[in-house]
Amino acid sequence: MGGFGSGRHGGSATAEATASYVLTASTLKPALRAGQRPGWIIYFGKERFPVTVRIDVFDPDDAFIELIHSTRDKREPDRTVRDLIRLTRTVPTYGGRRWWFLCPRTNQMTSKLYLPKGGWHFWSRDAYGLGYACQRKSRFDRLQRRAAKLNQQLGGKGLRTWNVPPEKPKWMRWPTYWRTYERWRAAVDKADAAFVASVMPLLYRRSRG
Q1: pLDDT tens across 4-45, in order?
Q2: Beta bridge mates, 42
Q3: Domain residue extents for the chain
Q4: CA nearest neighbour of 129 among 209, 10, 35, 16
Q5: Whole-model pTM above 0.85?
Q6: 198 alpha-carbon distance from chain centroid
Q7: Helices assigned H by DSSP within the chain
Q8: Is 81 exposed, middle or buried (0-12, 13-18, 19+ CB in 10 A)?
Q9: Where are the beta strands (DSSP E) in 7-48?
Q10: pLDDT single digits (tens) 40-52
Q11: Cβ 27 vs Cβ 53: under 8 Å
Q12: What's the sign of the alpha-carbon dihedral 185, 186, 189, 190?
């Protein structure tokens, strides 16, 4: 039928880039505690995208949630999707119980289900091959931002001075300063090494050209 989630999915997009609607198990806690709840509507996004929800956990071994909504596929926006999603639970060490979705596509436990643009179903992040935006950044980008954050903690200006040793703020104790400084220095060294590793292949190709 086409569309993101109608049977085809890729691994290059991020959850942020696809503007996914996210259904979390924690938002259903009151209904889960009640055991059963007839259909009610959850609205997602600025578009107020309506999803009818029905929960049945009367039998904990056969618990499920039913979702009824339209697709986000522009080619078939009026098609109604009705999914039954199995639920399971775990018992944390601090007591109580925690409910999880079983992704309809992977059958894996997950606390969140996603419906991206073009999608037909609420599936897990893995099922859609979605990543976080930060996972798409290079190793150098991640290490640089780590160094910038520590630089800012030391009184620096973050990304503007990410590799410049900042002077100790007057309010900071010396032991705290040196501990943070060592972490910052290590992050800068790793970022520098990652940058060199990323440009060496390019320099090598140019040198042979």
Answers
A1: 555 444 444 555 556 788 888 877 877 776 666 667 899 998
A2: 51
A3: 21-131, 137-208
A4: 10
A5: no
A6: 26
A7: 29-34, 125-128, 139-153, 174-208
A8: buried
A9: 21-24, 36-44
A10: 899 998 889 999 9
A11: no
A12: negative
